[in-house]
């Protein structure tokens, strides 16, 4: 070994020794639990509050929901492609994992991402079929009722049209609720992984900048999920529950990571921890990619009547999509 290489190795070891401080790391992690919880609450509740602000003006309210949802789609797509998938790839490509069977024999990151995408499709198709069957049954009951009314009062085409419109609105609303719930599942996977990884780390030099970066990360991710929840039209209690679930997942992951480190001595560089992080991250990435492209972007840009009939709204929505993607991508410099 040359003198320069020996010197570099010694400097790296000295930096690692200085940065590794379990007591200081635990203090920073406790601060991050409360900070991330607060920023998550702010991020997810802000689109809901903005949407309610515009609710008095129905036309403006509908447009605001579309723009918020497009911003959300950009955030979620960037989360999956710029944050989750690269982290999963790095975890499974680590030399402690990639030099062993079967991890060195097959690209498991891509495979599990594919599995996540197909699972999201399966859930989407099954749930959509159930929703359409349920709503069609209700529509049939409505049509029978209309026929009875029509026999007594001569019938009315306007009433039939109202039944059809109501059925379409019911299908769209239930579909959006399904999208929001599946989306939250994918994001919760990602949030728990982030939290556990941070909780197991004992490197103060890594944790300190990560606290601030994750705070902003949770704000934008919360805005993405909150935008979808706002359009789904949930009851206040359901929205509050979904907001709470999103807000507590990363803090709970941090606490779980701290418990795992105390119980096992495993830190975030342990091979078993890296494998779990890589597999769960890949699965989460597949779910989020499907939801962002199919159920958010494609649904609005190609099947939303309000957007297809309004070129100005389509431009603003595309700008919101780009802004959401850029904002979340920029955070990859720090987290």
From TrEMBL:
It is found in: Membrane. The chain crosses the membrane at residues 32-54, 66-86, 106-127, 182-201, 207-229, 241-263, 283-304, 316-334. It is a multi-pass membrane protein. Signal peptide: none annotated. Residues 157-184 form a coiled coil. It comes from the Eukaryota. Keywords: Coiled coil, Ion transport, Membrane, Transmembrane, Transmembrane helix, Transport. The keyword Coiled coil applies. It holds the Pfam family Zip. InterPro entries: ZIP, Zn/Fe_permease_fun/pln. Its main location: membrane. NCBIfam families: zip (TIGR00820). Belongs to the ZIP transporter (TC 2.A.5) family. PANTHER family: ZINC TRANSPORTER 6, CHLOROPLASTIC, ZINC/IRON TRANSPORTER. This is Zinc transporter 6, chloroplastic.
């Amino acid at each position: 070994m040359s003198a320069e290489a020996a010197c570099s190795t010694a400097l790296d070891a000295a930096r690692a020794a200085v940065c590794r401080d379990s007591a200081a790391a635990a203090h920073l992690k406790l601060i991050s639990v409360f900070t991330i919880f607060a920023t998550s609450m702010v991020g997810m509740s802000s689109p809901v509050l903005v949407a309610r602000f515009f609710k008095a003006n129905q036309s403006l309210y509908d447009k605001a929901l579309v723009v918020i949802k497009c911003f959300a789609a950009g955030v979620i797509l960037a989360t999956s492609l710029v944050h989750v998938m690269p982290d999963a790839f790095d975890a499974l490509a680590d030399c402690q994992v990639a030099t062993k069977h079967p991890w060195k024999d097959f690209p498991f990151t891509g495979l599990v991402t594919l599995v996540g995408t197909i699972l999201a499709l399966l859930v989407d198709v099954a749930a959509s079929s159930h929703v359409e069957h349920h709503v069609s049954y209700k529509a049939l009951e409505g049509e029978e009722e209309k026929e009875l009314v029509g026999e007594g009062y001569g019938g009315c085409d306007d009433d039939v049209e109202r039944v059809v419109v109501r059925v379409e609105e019911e299908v769209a609303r239930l579909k959006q609720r399904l999208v929001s719930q599946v989306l939250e599942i994918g994001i919760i996977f990602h949030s728990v992984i982030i939290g556990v990884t941070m909780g197991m780390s004992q490197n103060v030099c890594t944790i300190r900048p990560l606290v601030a970066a994750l705070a902003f990360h949770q704000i934008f991710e919360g805005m993405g999920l909150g935008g979808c929840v706002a359009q789904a039209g949930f009851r206040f209690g359901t929205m509050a529950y979904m907001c709470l679930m999103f807000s507590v997942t990363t803090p709970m992951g941090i606490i779980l990571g701290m418990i795992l480190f105390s119980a096992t001595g495993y830190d975030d560089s342990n091979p078993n921890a890296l494998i779990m992080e890589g597999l769960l991250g890949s699965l989460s990435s597949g779910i989020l990619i499907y939801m962002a492209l199919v159920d958010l972007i494609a649904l609005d840009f190609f099947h939303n009547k309000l957007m297809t009939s309004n070129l100005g709204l389509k431009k603003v929505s595309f700008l919101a999509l780009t802004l959401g993607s850029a904002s979340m991508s920029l955070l990859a410099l720090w987290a």
